[in-house]
Amino acid sequence: MTDSETRHREAVDAIQREMTVFARRARAFAGRLHPELTLVSYTLLAHLEDSGGCLAKDLAARYGLDKSTVSRQVRALEQLGFLERRSAPEDHRAQMLHLTPAGTDILAQVTESRHAAVAERLAGWGDADVAGFAELLIRYNAGPETSGDGSITQEYSNPDITETVR
Amino acid sequence: MTDSETRHREAVDAIQREMTVFARRARAFAGRLHPELTLVSYTLLAHLEDSGGCLAKDLAARYGLDKSTVSRQVRALEQLGFLERRSAPEDHRAQMLHLTPAGTDILAQVTESRHAAVAERLAGWGDADVAGFAELLIRYNAGPETSGDGSITQEYSNPDITETVR
DNA sequence: AGCTATAGATGTACTATACAACTATCCGGA
DNA sequence: TCCGGATAGTTGTATAGTACATCTATAGCT
């Protein structure tokens, strides 16, 4: 293995390790900032906002969740008043999900808290590094459609996924 | 708000969003690569390897887990034969935890799988970007000692391996 | 009409987790 | 020397998130 190959391998390992650390932390703490909205709930609501309303199956496909999981999450969020179901005129099996004003509110609050937490971590970084980090993360998550670290690899019909997935 | 401020805010939001996406995916898929070792188990074993043996309380502090959670995880990993407890000569309340050969093996296998998954996602990236991404992630996770995303800030000896733990 | 695919809900089971209470041990005074 | 508080870990209990299998209703093709 050449030096360059070794360096590359070490960088990939570091990425793997650091992403894992982040995942662990995010998971452990997600619920503490806003106990009323877990990480999953947050991502589901965020997708509703981005998409302007979608079906439960879209949420399941997007996040690699089982439809039963989404069904229960949706019910909980509905009971909390954060989203509402509307009939889908073209398909009576499905229901369009939409954020309610309360859902929009809570989403904004949580987003703000999370933004603040991240901003704190980025305190002292130069603008170029912040911009570069954002760009690399976006590229990483957009990734090859062939599933990386557990990406969902679903055939998406929606090309805007790379931006909207949360 | 100036243009520059706006761009900075958008970058921070993107980081927040993309890290969240990653966390969601990692969590959803972590167990699938190696069903015998969850994300948490993996990180615990990895820390045992890095530290060359430590106490349960260190694992709890490092990952922001409750000691009861760690206690149960440790018991499960012990029953799987991946770690063993040794008495701590200087403190009879505590037990030093050490990887067994089987634990070392499985850890290497999972690390390899995860490495491969990440490498696949990074296919097509230039060496400089990979190196830069690794560096930024390390810096992000090392973070300000003052808790960002909810980090707890623990002091530890190995600067390379993630730091603060939340 | 009939067959199959799809959207979602429900029954069930399991894992990870936290918090509280408990045991055993350690340590710093008085 | 003994005691009270701190610490390491275990166990009891409760909860969330999740998957898989199954069920209902609807779509849509042939």
TrEMBL record, chains A, B:
InterPro entries: ArsR-like_HTH (IPR011991), HTH_MarR-typ (IPR000835), MarR/SlyA-like (IPR039422), WH-like_DNA-bd_sf (IPR036388), WH_DNA-bd_sf (IPR036390). Residues 12-142 form the HTH marR-type domain. Transmembrane segments: none annotated. Residues 146-166 are annotated as: Disordered. Residues 148-166 have a biased composition (Polar residues). It comes from the Bacteria. PROSITE patterns: HTH_MARR_2. CDD domains: HTH_ARSR. This is Winged helix-turn-helix transcriptional regulator. It comes from Catenulispora pinistramenti.
